[in-house]
Amino acid sequence: METGGLDSDGRQFKSAEEMWREEVGDANRRSQWYKQGVGYWQGVEASVDGVLGGYGHVSEADIKASEAFLNTLLADYFPDAATNRHLVALGTLSLTLLSHGPYTHIAIPCIDML
Question: What is the pTM of this model?
């Protein structure tokens, strides 16, 4: 499932690996990249509406499409996955999409977001 694309500055990359190599290639750049990310999230209101940039409601259609996409990824990359596997949730879909599973770990960079 390796495909190319554009970053937020419009630069084209042949793969995600190529983009990450360019973005955070050395230890200093990697550290700076993560610090900038945490800085962004520290300035966002600690609510679903804040995290979603003013779009605090996630529609049922979005949840169903995300679930179908996630199931495709799990089937492709983890064909032996059972329903009791641990999932790590990044983002607000964890509340509506992944919280129905038996184990969900949420990774959030700022303590205020918990």
Answer: 0.52
Same domain for 88 and 33: no
> What SS3 class is residue 64?
helix
Q: Is the dihedral of CA 97, 101, 104, 110 positive or negative?
A: positive
Residues 31-64 pLDDT 10s? 888 888 889 988 988 887 887 788 777 788 988 8
What DSSP letter does each residue of 4-52 carry, written as one string?
A: -EE-TT--EESSHHHHHHHHH-SHHHHHHHHHHHHHHHHTS-SSHHHHT
Domain, as residue range, for 14: 1-43
User: 103 and 81: one domain?
Assistant: yes
How many structural domains comprise the chain? Answer: 2
